Amino acid sequence: MTFIARAAVVAMVLQSGAAAALPKIGAAAPAYAFAEVLNRSESSAKALTPESLRGKVVVLDFFATWCAPCVASVPQTNALADELSDQPIVFLAVANEDRPTLEAFLKKTPMRAWLVLDAEGQTYRNYMISGLPFVVVIGKDGRVAEFTHPSRLNRASLEKLAKAPSLSGTRTILSAIE
Question: Is the Cα torsion angle 154, 5, 109, 52 positive or negative in sign?
Fold first, then answer.
């Protein structure tokens, strides 16, 4: 996250009086909870927890149908999800819009990422999301590995992260690839 972006988030938090700390690279990832998975019939959103996904790289792509850059990134995310389908990597498009809007979007635009409804905005709050698109990559050990834009995600960096035993040294791996 750039200095300016982080400063904007800090200013917003200070104005709101919120006491939550900004997530940090290398720190344990904040909790996430989903009310529903919209594009997978075989899975329950309740099963998509930090504990159940431990051992997998988790790409949290904070997404909205009204966000042009979010929509523009769908083909690239779809390609990555297809290319990395044999890797321990889970792509989650986290939305906080209503179900009918998201279902209409899915009819026109298929998504390979699991499209999940944020449970009452809790995941957005836990990650202090104030602008879209925004991606948080979580390592297999449950620690924040990277904050980025979906257009900056790439196969090589995600594969290296999936093969890494832990997060130590991961930031340099991700940064060196970009």
Answer: positive
Q: What pLDDT score does 146 carry?
A: 95
Cβ pair 71, 65 in contact under 8 A: yes
Q: How far apart are CA 118 and CA 155, in angstroms?
A: 26
Within 10 angstroms of residue 131's Cβ, the number of other Cβ atoms is 11
| Alpha-carbon gap, residue 121 to 143, rounded angstroms | 21
CB of 94 closer than 8 Å to CB of 17:
no
Q: HSE-up of 64 (CA within 13 Å, CB side)?
A: 13
Token code pair at residue 137: 């990559």
pLDDT in tens, 108-159: 999 999 999 998 999 999 999 999 999 999 999 999 999 999 999 999 999 9
Three-state helix/strand/coil letters over the chain: CCHHHHHHHHHHHHHHCCCCCCCCCCCECCCCCEEEECCCCCCCHHHCCCCCCCCCEEEEEECCCCCHHHHHHHHHHHHHHHHCCCCCEEEEEEECCCHHHHHHHHHHCCCCCEEEEECCCHHHHHCCCCCCCEEEEECCCCEEEEEECHHHCCHHHHHHHHHCCCCCCHHHHHHHHC
